[in-house]
Automatic annotation (TrEMBL):
Annotated Polar residues bias: 9-27, 105-116
Stored SMART domains: HTH_MERR
Domain of life: Bacteria
InterPro entries per the UniProt record, alphabetical: DNA-bd_dom_put_sf, MerR-type_HTH_dom, MerR_fam
Biased composition (Basic and acidic residues): 118-129
Feature: compositional bias, Low complexity: 141-150
Lineage start: Bacteria, Bacillati, Actinomycetota, Actinomycetes, Mycobacteriales
SUPFAM superfamilies: Putative DNA-binding domain
Protein name in the entry: HTH merR-type domain-containing protein
The UniProt record lists the keyword Nucleus: no
CDD domains: HTH_HspR
Length: 157
């Protein structure tokens, strides 16, 4: 049904590139460099199927000023993932949902990691400030040291 996937890449997941803003230059793995025929050959997936995946929103290759599709290494990694799901018998709607959930899960894991780091930093800051600013023992609201209430510590008006 579908050819075997021959492309091998060590690039990171697509969700990382999806988080980059439009003003930043895309990472090397996200830069569209392959035309549809090369992407088809590298992935073993026909050009019409690549167009179908794009219509279904499974893939979003970049475009040149003239409108030509340019596939990136990240797109090819995504195609490999799509091919594996197709081989398992998952339909295109299911694949779209799976990819969406995986992307959302990745975002949540990243956010959770950031929150854990922030929490650890705040705890360390709180512990540090608590150890350097311990209140002196004595009565509450008392201005004299150690809570001693003797005449030597008071000022006469």
């Amino acid at each position: 049904m579908y050819g075997t996937f021959v492309y091998v890449s060590t690039s990171k997941s697509r969700s990382k590139t999806e988080q980059q803003s439009a003003t930043q230059e895309p990472s090397r793995s996200a830069r569209g460099v392959y035309g549809i025929s090369v992407a088809s050959e590298l992935s073993g997936i026909g050009p019409q199927t690549l167009r179908l995946y794009e219509r279904w929103g499974l893939l979003s290759p970049s475009r040149t000023a003239g409108g030509t599709r340019r596939y990136s290494d990240d797109d090819l990694d995504r195609l490999k993932q799509i091919s594996e799901l197709v081989d398992q018998g998952v339909n295109l709607a299911g694949i779209a949902r799976i990819l969406d959930l995986e992307s959302r899960n990745s975002q949540l894991e990243s956010h959770n990691t950031q929150l854990r780091l922030d929490n650890a930093r705040l705890r360390a800051d709180h512990k540090e400030s608590a150890s350097t600013t311990r209140p002196k023992k004595g009565r509450r609201g008392s201005a004299n040291e150690g809570g001693r209430n003797n005449r030597a510590n008071r000022r006469n008006p």
